[in-house]
Design brief:
- By secondary structure, the chain is mostly helical.
- It has one domain.
- Helices cover about 80% and strands about 0% of the residues.
- The chain has eleven helices and no strands.
- Helix 4 (about 75-95) packs parallel to helix 8.
- It is globular, with a radius of gyration of 18 Å.
Amino acid sequence: MALSLELIAALAAVAFVAGFIDALAGGGGLLTLPALLAAGIPPVSAIATNKLQSSCGTGGAFLAFARKGHVDFRRFRVPALCVFLGSALGAYVLQSIDSSFLSALMPLLLVAMALYFLLAPRMGEEDRHARLGKVALLLLLAAIGFYDGFFGPGTGSFFTTALVALAGLGLVRAIAHAKFLNFASNIAGLLVLIVSGKVLWVLGLAMAVASVAGNQLGAHSAMRFGGRGVRPLLVVMSLALTAKLLASPTNPLRVWLGY
């Protein structure tokens, strides 16, 4: 798929903003994925390219936590494997679904994720007792991995919520291990989509560089100013981009509903 330099630059700018917001409040994929779709990139290629750029940001965050000793690899090696396999399956299933159905489904999923980010409760800092058995937790994490391979935005928040609410981890430990699990799911989904030839490499790498730069600026801003008010801004921007998708007369959802 041929892309103009102007379009690549515009999407890289979105990735920069998304990386900045992601460092402050998470959920940067709620901006990059609808922007890719709004630019006319087919759903599977949009998800594949978004996964390439997000893998770089998640990998950097994961390594930062790992270097400081916050990741328990021995305890989380089996969960990471379950997440890896779930994501690979999700990416495989993604490619077997009709593209027109995906084009109609994506805006609905984006709206659901935006509402989740807006309404999700705050989480505590202290470790608690686990509320879910080991097998049930592994199945849940594998299901989140499947979601990441199939779609993606919000995965890190889902992992963090599950580890805090159900595995009993405190927020900092949950975030550290969520990055580890999210990196495993990103790599699995990305590998499947690379093998299938769905990644737009030039665009994905340009967005990755911009995302890393945005994450760095966001991290410094978070340490200096905090991240208040960022999550509502993220939701508004995401819904605006999703509305642009739905505004297209050729959107399959509008066609099916007769509008």
